[in-house]
Amino acid sequence: MVGPLIPMGIIPETWNNVIALLLGVGFGFSLEASGFSSSRKIMGTFFGYDFVVLRVFFTAAITAMTGIFYFDYMGWMDMSMLYINPYYIMSAIIGGIIMGFGFALGGFCPGTSFTGVAIGKIDAMFFSGGLFIGVFIFSELYPLFQGIYNSQNLGDAKIYDLLGMRSTVFAFLLIVAAVGMFYGAALVEKKVKKVDY
Amino acid sequence: MAKNKRDGSFYINPYLGGVLLGLVLFGTYYITGRGLGASGAVKSSVVSAVHTVAPVHADNNKYYSKFLSDDASPMSNWLVFEVIGVIVGGFLSGTLYGRLKFKIEHSPKITNRTRLVAALVGGILFGVGSQFARGCTSGAALSGMAVLSASGIVTMMAIFGSAYLFSWIFKKLWI
Predict the structure, then answer these.
(1) Where does A7-107 have alpha helices with state H?
(2) Contact A148 B132 (CB under 8 A)
(3) What is the ipTM, given to two decimal places?
(4) Which of A127, B21, B42, B122 could link A105 by a cystine bridge, Cβ 3.0 to 4.6 Å?
(5) B123–A131: do the CB atoms touch at under 8 Å?
(6) Nearest C-alpha of chain A: how many angstroms from B103?
(7) Domains in chain B: boundaries
(8) Do the chains contact at A133 and B124, CB–CB below 8 Å?
């Protein structure tokens, strides 16, 4: 079966929402079981006392990436059919910086806050509530942001094309960098004083 | 296993967690042709709520109207179902490992009230930022990295880079 299955018409569209729910369960379970329902565990990555975010995030990224490239290479999935978020340079950077600010104050990102809500974290409920307010504020003030939001669109640009590398070379370097960070994280964790949470 | 798995302190190995999450993400791309997300569900809910309360206002606003079409309700968005799944999955894991408890988690140096205000403001900022970046840590950064998109890598570096700097400014909130 050549993927992606739903866009190829192998699984009918009507299953879309059922599949969304099931994949969401897997997503939520992986996040909570790894410790992402705890803001202080998440924030450990920035202070060096617990690198769980770094480990889970980069392991997940390289696992999914390797699967996608392998399936594409074997002809089991057509990578060109996958949806790629368009790259609007300024908007992506400004949005990322604002999110990082929110991350440092709130200790969650949207997905992790939902798993916090699921197990009864009241701080996660306030964070999640804030998300709705933030989206509402952005939408209402959209005319102010419209210029930045729509400028410098590079479409579905790939990082390896921008860097003038072959995709496989970049993927390999990313894996090497991830392993290097895992090694460095273990060294830092040993030196940093443990935090009880 | 010597450790009591049900006292809430047990977490799976982070590399195992990463592989599980990576397989879910890979499966999502293989089945649906798109990645995972979280903030998109919030956007759909806000669009839907505003459209219900003030339909004319929503139609006239250039942002809401992008996501309103005559044939589909914005709530029938894929990500809304996925996020319902996230909550169910988180609840299952929390049940399995004994973590279901109403709790406010914060540094001993701050009060509950400070923590809740910071969480709310953090959520608001994350909500605003995720609209600029067309996705959050899940939809823009993680899903984008899996396909090596420029937007994914740049957003990831911006989020973690600025979070690192700001977290030291707000150190007292955490340690």
Answers:
(1) 16-34, 39-47, 52-74, 89-106
(2) yes
(3) 0.96
(4) B122
(5) yes
(6) 5
(7) 1-101, 105-175
(8) yes
- Which of B124, B134, B160, B166 to probe by mutation at the A interface, max A CB count within 10 Å? B124
Contact A110, B31 (CB under 8 A): no
Backbone angles phi, psi at B34, to 5 degrees: -140, 170
Cross-chain residue pair A59–B28, CB shorter than 8 Å: no
Concatenate the DSSP letters of all residues of B118-167 into one string: HHHHHHHHHHHHHHHTTS-IIIIIIHHHHTTBHHHHHHHHHHHHHHHHHH
Whether chain B has a CB inside 8 Å of the CB on A110: the answer is yes
Question: Which residues lie across from A153 on neighbouring strands?
Answer: A88
The tokens describing A42, both together, are 């998440």
pTM reported for the whole predicted model? 0.95
Vertex B159 angle, CA B20 and A195, to 5°: 70
Of A65, A85, A104, the CB nearest to B151: A85
Q: Encode chain A (197 residues) as per-residue pLDDT tens digits.
A: 798 999 999 999 889 999 999 999 999 999 999 999 999 999 999 999 999 999 999 999 999 999 999 999 999 999 999 999 999 999 999 999 999 999 999 999 999 999 999 999 999 999 999 999 999 999 999 999 999 999 999 999 999 999 999 999 999 999 999 999 999 999 999 999 888 88
Contact A21 B23 (CB under 8 A): no
A192 CB near a chain B CB, below 8 Å?
Answer: no
Interatomic CA distance for residues A172 and A177, integer angstroms: 9
> Counting beta carbons within 10 angstroms of the beta carbon of residue B159, is it exposed (0 to 12), middle (13 to 18) or buried (19 or more)?
buried
Of the CA atoms within 13 Å of residue B36, those in its CB half-sphere come to: 36
Peptide linkage before A86 cis (omega within 30 of 0):
no
- For residue B111, give the chain A residue with the closest CA: A123
User: Which of A21, A62, A115 lies nearest to residue B84, judging by beta carbons?
Assistant: A21
